[in-house]
Amino acid sequence: MSIEQLRSDPLEGYDIIGDIHGCAGALKSLLLKLGYKSVGEGFAYPNNRRRLVFLGDFIDRGPEIKETLSIVYACVTEFDALAIAGNHELCALLYYLNPDKLPKPFIHSSIQKQVKLTVAALKDSPDLLDKYLHWFHQLPLFADLGEFRVVHALWDQQLIDWYKTHYQSTKLNPDFLSDWLAGDKTASDTINRLTRGLNLPCPDGIEIKGVDGVVRKSFRVKFWGETQPETYQEIAFQPAPLPEPLATKAISPSDFQKLIYYSSKEKPLFVGHYWLQGELALVSKNIACLDYSAVNGGKLVAYRYHLGDQGLDTNRLVATRLPSF
Ligand SMILES: [Mn+2]
């Protein structure tokens, strides 16, 4: 198959891929399972009838970061795939832009260690590292593809509208990056919410030990579900259960004010980021999270979206077999 033969048929749909984190082997097997063919360094669907959408976090953690970057970059630049930024791509950018003053909580010690894995994977190819960092500078932070939306962690319509008005773009750009690095609160809220989701600090000095062994003083929160939740357990969304007494504690009025609600009447939304485990399922009627901990012995997951679909369907979730590393 040559690249020239690819561009003919109308678009049938999109295949949206969750967090890869350097698992190129899992990525290749998922793309082959979905019917994509290897072309050059990338993958394309026969006659370009389907396009790929990557939800961010291509880098860090995993064993084949360099090859993963090569595949995703080629899919985007040669075959019209879309890739949006995850918190790890932003972290890598900041690591180069501003190594002496990294904004917290966006960058903490464990994520810094992970960025070093990406730097190490590209240490013999400084030109490639430059190329990818340049690419990261221009990745979209979110996208509305007409029938559905994508963002790495959380769709906050208010902050997205602010971003589009303020920067006249959906992409990362130098003005935004300099505002963020200068400590602009709305810029910082936007990047935190969209790429890390909503995190609430644990009250009363409570700590939570994660499935990755990291002890955290905050926890991730849902942006769907009940419109009037009462306890912290009802809004928590993370692998480790909340410890008592936090789980059954009533949500404080100030935390309640921070909650975001993506209505079930909104168009379908795809996110990654949340380290899901176990059986594939939608997280709500109109939201699919496609991060199933690929790098942690889990699965790399895609959603097959056909143009004209009415709503989401669990049967469209596709996973690689368990990788062998
Ligand atoms: Mn992430």
Second CATH tier, the architecture? 4-Layer Sandwich
By secondary-structure content and strand pairing, the structural class works out as alpha/beta
Largest sheet data: 6 strands, mixed
What fraction of residues sit in β-strands? 15-25%
Number of helices: 10
Instruction: Return residue spans where pLDDT drops below 50 for at least 5 consecutive residues.
Output: none
Question: What is the CATH third-level topology name?
Answer: Purple Acid Phosphatase, chain A, domain 2
Q: Could you give the count of β-strands?
A: 16
Give the CATH level 1 class.
Alpha Beta
Radius of gyration: 19 Å
Shape, per Cα inertia axes: globular
Helix percentage range: 25-40%
- Terminal-residue CA separation: 31 Å
How would you state the average pLDDT, rounded?
Answer: 90
Q: CATH homologous superfamily name?
A: Metallo-dependent phosphatases
- Bound compounds, please? manganese (II) ion
- List SSEs in N-to-C order: EHEEEHEHHHEEHHHEEEEHHEEEEE
- Number of structural units classed as domains: 1
Q: Could you characterize the architecture of this molecule?
A:
There is one protein chain. This protein has 325 residues and is α/β, with parallel strands linked by helices. The chain has a single domain, classed as Metallo-dependent phosphatases (Purple Acid Phosphatase, chain A, domain 2), CATH 3.60.21.10. 31% of the residues lie in helices and 17% in strands. The protein has ten helices and 16 strands. The strands form five sheets. Strands 1, 4, 5, 14, 15 and 16 form a six-stranded mixed sheet that branches. A hairpin with a 4-residue loop joins strand 6 and strand 7. Helix 7 packs across helix 8. The radius of gyration is 19 Å and the shape is globular. The two termini are 31 Å apart. Manganese (II) ion (MN) binds next to helix 3.
